Amino acid sequence: MMNQQMMDSLNNQVKMEAESSQAYLALASWADAQPGLDGVAEFFYRQSDEERMHMIKLMKYINERGGFAIIPALSQPQITYVSLKSAFDLFLKHELKVSESINDLVETALKVKDYATHNFLQWYVNEQMEEERVARLLNEKLELIGEDKSGLYLFDRDILSGKQKA
Ligand code: OFO
């Protein structure tokens, strides 16, 4: 049976991944409703799916270890954005928050000497590094582009090219 504090912390992460999935779904819908942001919309639809996958992976682990994964209630995420840059700022800020939370989980696993969970969490540590990298890169590109329309056109066209997403 898993340590209670560990289980509670993992369930808290389940909620965080669910919130990430909802937040990115909202970003996808916002982009979808704007002219010329089809690539960005698809990027966030996929990102939302990934977060759901992160959530389910955690749930399965909790249940496998004799715990009980709890499906959380969620509040409505931000649904409109003043600009593309502010949408991607939110994306980066969100990923940094998730990384912090994963680091806290690793710390808890060590504290309660749950080495199996510590091992399990390494996948999330790596995943967060990659997500942060992508979010930073996209924000840097948008900073360079500024208000340049052809730059924004290329940004949207290339966002799914796979160059930034490993
Ligand atoms: Fe689940 O990795 Fe992003 O939030």
Overview features:
single chain, mainly alpha, 166 residues, binds hydroxy diiron-OXO moiety, 0% strand, Ferritin, 75% helix
Task: Write the SSE topology.
Layout: H1 4-32, H2 38-64, H3 84-111, H4 115-145, H5 149-158
Helix pairs in contact: 1-2, 1-3, 3-4
The structure holds hydroxy diiron-OXO moiety.
How would you sum up this structure, described in words?
The chain is mostly helical and 166 residues long. Helices cover 75% and strands 0% of the residues. It has five helices and no strands. The chain has helices at residues 4-32, 38-64, 84-111, 115-145, 149-158. Helix 1 (4-32) runs antiparallel to helix 2 (38-64), helix 1 packs antiparallel against helix 3 (84-111) and helix 3 packs antiparallel against helix 4. The longest helix is centred in the C-terminal third of the chain and has 31 residues, at 115-145. Bound molecules: hydroxy diiron-OXO moiety. Residues 17, 20, 51, 54, 95, 98, 127-128, 131 line the site of hydroxy diiron-OXO moiety.
